[in-house]
Each structure stands twice: as structure tokens, then as C-alpha cells.
Amino acid sequence: MSARSTPIRTAVVGAGGIAQGQHLPALRGLGDRVSIDAVVDMDGGRAMEVAAEWGAPRSFTAVADMLAEVQPDLVVVCTPPGSHTDAVIRSLDAGASVWCEKPPTLSLAEYDSILEHEGAAGPYASYVFQHRFGSAARTLRAQIAAGDLGAPLVGICHTLWYRDTAYYDVAWRGKWETEGGGPAMGHGIHQMDLLLSLLGDWTEISATMATLGREVETEDVSFAHVTFENGAIVSVVNSVLSPRETSYLRFDFADATVEVEHLYGYDNSHWRWTPAPHVGPDVVGAWAPTQNLASSHAVQLEELVSSLERGERPAASGHDGRRVLELVAGLYQSAFTGRRVQRSELHRDNPFYWSMNGSGQGSREPIKEAADA
């Protein structure tokens, strides 16, 4: 039950497609648990139009002005990656918790700089990784924790998507400075977060990447071999060159194989549990999820709001939100250097801590407020 007697006051930063298609409907779906109090966009006309459409009483063109006048409890950041850090830090410093679109930041250094602005009891910054919140993923996570399926041994985490050349006409896409990386950073990050939420932390990665079909600064495909602390070995592939698009994860345990194949979201029908021959088929019914919640912004937001109502740190924040950036940084370091990389290497003395392409050491100035996604 909520300990609050008033709605969580919410502001949305960035009024583009992801805000209108996902975040604002998810907020409205929570009814009187939240209020949509402001919309911010560099395009003042669009901010005003979207605010009116969704019943927000105020619109702004700058985050700082909104924070000073509205004093929200929660800020939802839906801008391009390069402007995330500035908006998140400003919001935390104003006392607002944050839910920010992926990727969280452009580097581990930026992520850690945000952590310094959180309080021990909040406000907190959390990030949009909706695939870990569907009922099937929750069920599998509980089964792994309980050891119901035996030891995890082998895994596959493949994000095989297709983005044409026109997709990269948007100025900030396909550039290290403004997107932080290619499909490993901007596309496969969702499946990799789901992978990590299930199997935990990794220890070593060996990777390669290439730019084969798109005129971009970053890679357009990468392959990685990842070893986890629990001993499991996982193949990770991220591509924007794959005409038959799919998102496919497979986990081979001692007693079962569990698979999910979908594209941009799943429900229980996309998952399959297959028992090992020595186990027998009668257990499958007992393994099946008892409810059917699709992976979505709405299901993650509901859990986030529940955490804030209880005064607790939400999932996909702190270390729980950081681990996928560690994996991406390790992937890029291995691909650039041609050697295996240990997770323990990703510290402040490593240039790949400061930027995903290892271009230099030392903090970079966050890119100031930019147009929405």
C-alpha cells in the first residue's frame, strides 16, 4: 500500500515519439497515483501542444525553469543520450527522483557522477530497462535464485535488428560523442540488461565489432563471448544489419532450457521452458508463470512508482542500473584492443571508463539540453 496521501508530481522532459508513445500513456495508466504536471521540450510549441493533449498544466523549454517552478517528485527524461546526464543531475539536485531512457549515460564516468547526486534515502535515478519486468522474466529470475532449474551453463543473447541508412540521418545517431556507441549501446542494451538481471555480474569478455553496412562512426555489428561469475558462458550479438529482425535469448541450465524470442516486447507466449531428458515433461506446468504481464514501460513504471511510494530505491538504479554499461564498456574495450577484458579493469585509470571508444581520460562536459528523441 502507498504511504503517500497525494499523487507523485511528475514532469516529462522531451516531448518526442518515445514520450508520447510510451511514457505519457504509462503515467496516465497509473490514475491518481501520479499527476502529469509539466512537459519540457526545446520546441516550445511542441511542449505546449503535448502538455495540453495530456492534461499537464505547465510547459517549459528548459529543465532548470521547470524544476524551479514545478518542484516535481519525479522527472521522466526522454531526450537523446547526450543530454541525459545534465537533465538527471539537475533533477536530483532539485530533490526529484528520475526515470531516464536508455542508454543511461554515455560512459561509466558519467553514470558514477550521477550517483554522487543521489541521497541515501533518495532521490534516486533509475533507467528504462522494461524487459526485465515482464512476468516470465520475473518467474525465471526467481527460479534461478532458488536453483529450480539447476546451474546456468550456456546462454545466447542476440539482438538482430534492422536500421536503414535514413535512420542515421538524425544528427546525434551513429556518433561516439552523442550516442556513446552503436547497436551494443543503443539497441542490444535492452536484451543485455535482461541477461544481466537474470545471470548477475560477469567476469570476462572477448569481443569483436565492425562497421559493415552503415556510414556511421560507431560499429553496426558486434560479437562477444562473456563469462559470468556463476561460470556460465554466453554469446552476445548486436546488429542493425539483420532484415529478419529478432530478439532472442536462450539459457541452458543443468535441468532445462529456457528461451524467449520476440522483437520489441514480449508476453508469456514468447517464452518456452524445455526440461532436460532426465527431468521429464511433467514439470513444465509447474515452471510456467502464474500471471501474464508483458514487458513494457507501463509495468516498469508501476514498480518504480511503488518503490517511490514506499521510500525505497527502485530497480534498475545504482549498481543494478550500471552493470549493463560495464558490459558495454568491456565489449568496446575488447573490440578496440583485441584482447580479453576483465570486469575488474573498468576503473578510473582505464580510458574506457571515461568514454566507450577509449578516446581519452578525464571528465567530459555533459552536452547541455538537446532536442528530444
From TrEMBL:
Instruction: Look up the domain of life of the source.
Output: Bacteria
Q: Name one GO molecular function term.
A: nucleotide binding
Q: Residue ranges of region Disordered?
A: 352-373
Question: What start and end residues bound the annotated signal peptide?
Answer: none
The Gfo/Idh/MocA-like oxidoreductase N-terminal domain, residue ranges = 8-118
Q: Which UniProt keywords apply?
A: NAD
- Classification via InterPro entries: Gfo/Idh/MocA-like_OxRdtase_N, Gfo/Idh/MocA_Oxidoreductase, GFO_IDH_MocA-like_dom, NAD(P)-bd_dom_sf
Q: Does the keyword Transferase apply?
A: no
Q: Can you give the residue ranges of the GFO/IDH/MocA-like oxidoreductase domain?
A: 138-246
Keyword check for RNA-binding: no
Protein name per the record? Predicted dehydrogenase
